[in-house]
């Protein structure tokens, strides 16, 4: 499916760099993983499988992602927490019209100060990735989580 081992390594590096960035809280860098016209959606599996549009978070451009970053850093008040992503190897389903269609399972562990770590969110990423002069970027990232029950707030990107 992939044209070369170099492309496979770049794709795998994109997934690893993304996880490291959101785990480290480097929010200013998060939008850089996406194209200008992009889609980022955090959606329950039930809604996704039934074709329902309702999502927990839905952003349709890099500008909207930057808006979320501003909200995280400047306006949202919440208990601080750390998150740690465990992401499976991306499975490429097809490469078509310059887009890599891939999927990977993920688990996010959340640790609040002075509390035990717990599973915060688990599911799969469904991605469309394009090559840009700066390297691979997400044109679309759907984070489809398995549980219908979620914590009362999701502040940080998954």
TrEMBL record:
CDD domains for the chain: ring_hydroxylating_dioxygenases_beta (cd00667)
Keywords associated with the record: Oxidoreductase
Residue ranges occupied by any SnoaL-like domain in the UniProt entry: 4-141
InterPro entries in the cross-refs: NTF2-like_dom_sf, Rng_hydr_dOase-bsu, SnoaL-like
Entry's Gene Ontology molecular function annotations: oxidoreductase activity
Entry's family note: Belongs to the bacterial ring-hydroxylating dioxygenase beta subunit family.
Name of protein: Salicylate hydroxylase
């Amino acid at each position: 499916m992939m044209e070369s081992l170099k492309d496979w390594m770049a794709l795998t590096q994109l997934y690893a760099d993304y996880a490291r960035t959101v785990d480290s809280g480097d929010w200013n860098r998060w939008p850089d993983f996406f194209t200008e016209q992009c889609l980022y959606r955090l959606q329950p599996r039930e809604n996704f499988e039934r074709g329902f549009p309702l999502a927990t978070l839905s952003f349709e451009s890099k500008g909207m992602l930057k808006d979320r970053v501003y909200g995280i850093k400047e306006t949202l008040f919440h208990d601080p927490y750390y998150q740690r992503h465990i992401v499976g190897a991306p499975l490429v389903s097809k490469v078509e019209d310059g887009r890599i269609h891939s999927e990977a399972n993920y688990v996010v562990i959340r640790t609040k100060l002075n509390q035990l770590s717990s599973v915060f969110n688990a599911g799969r990423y469904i991605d469309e990735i394009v090559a840009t002069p700066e390297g691979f970027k997400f044109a679309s990232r759907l984070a489809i989580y398995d549980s219908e029950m979620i914590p009362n707030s999701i502040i940080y990107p998954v």
